[in-house]
Amino acid sequence: MKLNLLSRCDRVNSKKLESDRFKFRSGFSKTHSPQRKREAATMPEATTAITGACGGDARDWNEEGYRKSILQDRELLSRTVFRTAFAPSQNPNPEILVVASSDGSVAAYSLASCIKATSQHQHSYKIFSQNIRTAPSPSLAEPLHIFQGHKGPAYDLKFYQRGEECILFSCGDDGRLRGWNWKELLKSDILVNREGNSLKPVLDLVNPQHERPWGALSPIPENNAIAIDEQEGSVFAAAGDACAYSWDVETGKQKVVFKGHTDYLHCVTFRKSNHQVITGSEDGTTRIWDCRNGRCTQVIRPKKNLKSKQPLWVSSVAIDSSESWLACGAGSGLSVWSMLSSECVFSIDSHAPVQDLLFDDNQILAVGAEPILTRFSISGVTLSQIKCAPQSAFSVSHHPSGVIAVGGYGALVDVLSQFGSHLCTFCCPGMDNYT
Prior knowledge:
Family: Belongs to the WD repeat THOC6 family.
Keywords: WD repeat
Pfam family, one: WD40
Protein name: THO complex subunit 6
InterPro entries: THOC6, WD40/YVTN_repeat-like_dom_sf, WD40_repeat_dom_sf, WD40_rpt
Mean pLDDT: 80
């Protein structure tokens, strides 16, 4: 099968895909930014190295410190934030943002601390470089907690709340769907939790392997997206074997398998009013399923309504709060469908692939393979475009207060107010920063 490079965009650089056709390229930037050198100069181990580089006494050159600063810079550039999620809280304003990254880590950040650190960082930069007209690079944020959620990239996060119970679900390239006790995590006084430490998932679900000729088993298919049904106590996972799986949160047992797509699944969402699950696939279709029996009730083909001649895949799906409208990010385009009439309301082509989207009341927020957050009306009119820090964005999250978080390439997270102003931009450290 012909390799579709655009369908993977930058995301393919972090994925170890099951089939040979999912090939990828990866690499590091060889540019060591001047700002990173200035930041490294504040570190004891790199101070003399940078002093020497700036024309000071070269006899005290710290080669190891300088090399470490370069490697850290490269590691940050090669890492990606695949998902951001606002933690539930009694406070009407967001307090904690949880991030899933390509190194398999899951980290929680205090937004108040990140906003304060960003302000201080920008102020220090302004004093230090009064004659330099370049923008400061994002500061490296300090998480409240960080733990190794998965072996390989972690792709999605969702909170499950039922009564007093609050579980943070994560999924990743290792084919596991894990549930973490959120309250225990908040109470933990351990900053870093690695595998084998005290922090254990309350649920650890693994996708089934498929039997192949001669009794061989296929690799465990990765999980790429999660959807939650709190009323029925179910969690859904979109997998790389072209299937979606439903699991019982109480028992940990598999309930239903949704089988019908012909290729890799990118996304999944739940429609509780009709007890349906909606999936989007590399095969270019969006399918609507009955959760009770696993049957496909409708197939939507966004490609028919887009002008692009390139092969299309469905990268993201979202439904509005009334569950009357369905938005599909399909390749380099976006379309909105009426769930009542099954008709396309509008479709629009974009020059960059759409990689995530969601509804904000009757408007749509979309991000993709460019550093821009776009807001559309339900009729397809572009209302605003805001420049974001990640050069390629894979996640957009929305808080009821109107605050928006965008995460993506370079381990960057951009937090914006409801009015579009940048509250803070920070860089997420990986597990390697705590070795």
